[in-house]
């Protein structure tokens, strides 16, 4: 059951990430998230910029929380990582942080809430744009087929090993010598009956 759920989630992730890039980012990084907002029949883009204070990786239900200070008030917003309402995610700064959750920033303001920059170099995107989700789903299906084939090969190998072990056990067992049949008394009986038949024939002739 878990394998079916994982396959379904992989296919959905491939569909959602087929037309956009998702960069690699960590808590402490300053992000610029562009969101699609639908108002009636019109839609527009809105930018939300802040510090990523938490991230939860749970496959298709992955989320990340961004915090910013607006007019002296702290504002936090949690975004689903694979939401179709997110147009793009940009990493502006990379922070030097040793924690996974930066909830301590809620009690700080001004300079004490600043995070030092860290140069991690160029990092490849976590999910790169492919243009269509079909190639990725085909790859997933191929990987599944390869795994099934490998499992079948393993089953065959184990079966052959078991057969070899049984053959070796049978070969190691002591072989009982075949009991020779006593044919001599039967032959003797047949000779005696032949002599008796000849005697009866001679008596009839005489």
Question: Please, could you describe this protein's structure?
Answer:
The chain is built from three helices and five strands. It has helices spanning 2-16, 134-172, 184-205, and strands at 30-39, 42-56, 63-70, 73-80, 86-93. Helix 1 (2-16) runs antiparallel to helix 2. The radius of gyration is 41 Å and the shape is elongated. Mean pLDDT is 79; it is low at 133-137.
Major β-sheet, in short?
A: 5 strands, antiparallel
Relative strand content? 15-25%
Radius of gyration: 41 Å
Distance between the termini: 100 Å
Helix content range: 25-40%
- What is the approximate shape? elongated
- Helices, by number, come to 3
CATH topology name of the domain at 23-112, in short, is: SH3 type barrels
Mean pLDDT: 79
SSE order: HEEEEEHH
Helix-strand category: alpha+beta
Q: Count the E strands.
A: 5
Which stretches are low in confidence, meaning pLDDT under 50 for 5 or more residues running? 133-137
Task: Produce a short descriptive summary.
By secondary structure, this protein is α+β, with helices and mostly antiparallel strands.
Essential attributes:
206 residues, alpha+beta, SH3 type barrels, 3 helices, elongated
Layout of strands and helices, then pairs:
Layout: H1 2-16, E1 30-39, E2 42-56, E3 63-70, E4 73-80, E5 86-93, H2 134-172, H3 184-205
Antiparallel strand pairs: 1-2, 1-5, 2-3, 3-4
Helix pairs in contact: 1-2
